Amino acid sequence: MAVDPRGADLKRLIADDPGGPVVMLNLLRFAEGGFESYQEYARQLHETFLPRYGGEVLYAGTGSTVLVAEDGQSWDAVVVVRYPHREAFSRMVADPEYQEVTRLRTEALTEAVLQATIPWG
Question: Is 46 in contact with 57 (CB distance < 8 Å)?
Answer without folding.
Answer: yes
